[in-house]
Amino acid sequence: MLLTKSQRHPPGLYVLFFTEMWERFSYYGMRSLLVYYMIKHLQFTQERSSEIYGLYTGFVYFTPLFGGMLADRVLGQRKTVVLGALLMAVGHFLMAAPSLFYPALIFLILGNGAFKPNISTQVGALYPPNDHRRDRAFSLFYMGINLGAFFSPLVCGTLGEKIGFHWGFAAAGVGMVIGLLVYLSGQKHLAPDLIMRKEGLGQKKTDEPMTREDWQKIWAIFVMMALSVVFWSVYEQQGNTMALWADANTDRMIFGWEMPASWFQSFNPLMIFLFVPLLNRFWARQDRRGKEPSSIAKMGIGCLLLGAAFLILIPPAQELAVHPRASLWWLFACTFVLTMGEIYLSPIGLSLVTRIAPARIVSMMMGVWFLSSFFGNYLSGYLGTFWMKMPRENFFLLMFFLSFLTGLAFFALLGPLKKAINQNK
Length: 425
Known about the structure:
Blueprint: H1 11-41, H2 46-59, H3 64-75, H4 77-94, H5 101-125, H6 134-163, H7 165-185, H8 194-201, H9 212-235, H10 241-248, E1 250-251, E2 253-254, E3 257-258, H11 267-288, H12 295-311, H13 314-318, E4 326-327, H14 328-356, H15 362-384, H16 392-412, H17 414-420
Parallel strand pairs: 1-4
Antiparallel strand pairs: 2-3
């Protein structure tokens, strides 16, 4: 069935889709190798590697706050995205030299800060505030994120593990350059950012006072950001302790061939790519029946599902003395439930921020939203230090309780948050 013009998405969505796909290819390609590179090549201890991993993956989500401010007040979203892409490309290529490890991380952190909040807000700018296509657009955009994240461990991870780490990092850099070229070639399809609109109208870049309703929505974003910190601290164990579990405690033999450990990190994005359309249909069916959960309730459900995912790994962890390498199906099942939790929280949060944040500070508020990933990733690194200090089953139980209690907190604050953002559902 052909879609009507009002149902079709604008071409700019697909420009942003493929730009973000290649940027995430570069980010997750590098991330899939980071812990292995530090332990196996740089000879760092597991504890130090986990701490650096947490700091790096945390700070790439701290700098978006300043990247959003830079875009809102000085450069505009388009120029800031280009700046971020260039910085990240340089950082990936610098990773090829061990002596430049820390400068490379700094380039990547600063580049991501400029890129991340401003690519996401441009998706929202393609649609009017109450356009029913907005949530579906962010789901499609999120599929682009995870398409890149799926292929990157297969390409960068295989090159890094089988040929040399510098080959894997170079592939990530090439991916970022391709993403930049896609973005530059599709400029005519993007919506003008706030600074471009002001310059077109000859307006000065002046601050306008916030209304009481604006402050309520800002408060709600901060509360949801704070609650999401714990979600990301547990979720980001994928690239940290779960990567170690995949490497040391998982039987990866498939018909006589051993799957590279870094390929585990393709499970999650592949599942997102497969299941986002199905969940969108499920939510649409719930909506027709008047039973679709509110955006905030979906985020609470996401936390509950994430916690449940780690319960799956407790039985094989209890059997390590007898079976030191557990079946790959345990890890597959855990990742499936974890992925369902992510779909309920992450794209919903992105869409909600672009819908409720005051337009003149939307990039900065997207940066505020990404602070949840900053604190969560930092906490993820801290939690990772307990991997060698406690039994595996106790570690997974800890992950369950942290996420489950956060889900309950979302539901406890459901009423006040819905009132603050004027969401009736």
